[in-house]
Sequence to fold (83 residues):
Amino acid sequence: MPSNLDHYLRAFRTLHVNRAGERTSPHKPCMLLAVLGMAEAGDLGEIRRWVQVPEMENRYLRVVLLPDGETVHNAFFDRRYAP
Fold:
């Protein structure tokens, strides 16, 4: 994948976005382009852990940590996780 600025500018100009409703919502394609750029640079090093939470009907919380293994990047209940 080319890493020059023109490539990314062209990708953003031709982006297909959700046009339902009054406003467009390009956040998911933008996020994908950002993640692809991070992967190209070798910056993806997150660590994922799942924790069962008894107080929430034993649902599983997915915790995404940064490469240092301590800093929480994101956490959410994962509906698809099965132990």
Remarks:
- The chain has two domains: 5-41, 47-77.
